[in-house]
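Hi V.,

Quick status before I head out on leave. The structure for the redesign project is tokenized and pasted below; the design run finished overnight.
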């Protein structure tokens, strides 16, 4: 079994039970105690779990999220490659939903189509698109200062009225069993609705987002195509994966 598969199994078991023993994880994954302890150390370093005597528990703060500026510098090169590929999928005449997020923001640098219409809930997306003379509509509502996303009941109701050719969605976590998740419930509703009202929905996720679970579910894999930077055989069997490298 690949280490990535074990990590996913371990994380899902801890999510289900809250606390899990090393012995149970050994039996579940058919692995040695030393292997499981290394896996737990790795997941703890990633902030996914906390080790306790004889096992591990789920970390608190699953709904806590970094700011837009903090996330912008993480895996920057990979995000740019993903954004460039995603932008190449846009065709003249498309109606587009562009989600708030750092990788979707990077997309604005590569969108050159003039004959498109973009709807977004990302504050930072607006100026970048206007500078390219692209028609853009910003959804109205409450602005989250941390992520620069517009959210709330009014925002959701506005989004519900649109129909898009393509939606480009940012995500915080991807898990083989739990699907796509994100820390904020209001943002999760926006992402889910955008996927629902779009003909084609693309989730932009660098490989650091895989084998992670966040607070609120957005959607299952069958509803989206995931654009990422690294091949993962485990996920490739489960979802529609587009790898840019």
């Amino acid at each position: 079994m690949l280490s990535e598969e074990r990590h996913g199994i371990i994380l899902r078991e801890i999510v289900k039970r809250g606390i899990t023993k090393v012995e149970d994880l050994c039996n579940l994954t058919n692995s040695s105690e030393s292997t499981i302890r290394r896996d737990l150390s790795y997941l703890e370093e990633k902030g996914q779990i906390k080790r306790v005597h004889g096992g591990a528990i789920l970390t608190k703060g699953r709904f806590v999220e970094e700011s837009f500026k903090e996330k912008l510098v993480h895996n920057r090169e990979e995000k740019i490659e993903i954004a460039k590929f995603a932008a190449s999928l846009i065709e003249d005449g498309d109606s587009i939903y562009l989600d708030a997020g750092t990788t979707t923001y990077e997309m604005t640098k590569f969108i050159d189509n003039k004959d498109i219409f973009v709807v977004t809930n990302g504050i930072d997306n607006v100026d970048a698109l206007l500078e390219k003379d692209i028609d853009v509509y910003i959804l109205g509502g409450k602005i989250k200062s941390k992520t620069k996303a517009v959210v709330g009941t009014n925002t959701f109701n506005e989004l519900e009225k649109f129909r898009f050719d393509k939606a480009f969605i940012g995500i915080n976590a991807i898990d083989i069993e739990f699907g796509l998740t994100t820390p904020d419930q209001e943002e999760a509703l926006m992402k889910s609705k955008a996927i629902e009202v779009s003909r084609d929905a693309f989730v932009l996720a660098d490989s650091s987002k895989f084998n992670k679970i966040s607070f609120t579910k957005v959607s299952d894999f069958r509803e989206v195509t995931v654009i990422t930077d690294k091949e993962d055989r485990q996920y490739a069997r489960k979802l529609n994966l587009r790898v840019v490298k």
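Above is the designed sequence. The mean pLDDT is 89.

G. will cover questions while I'm gone.

Best,
W.
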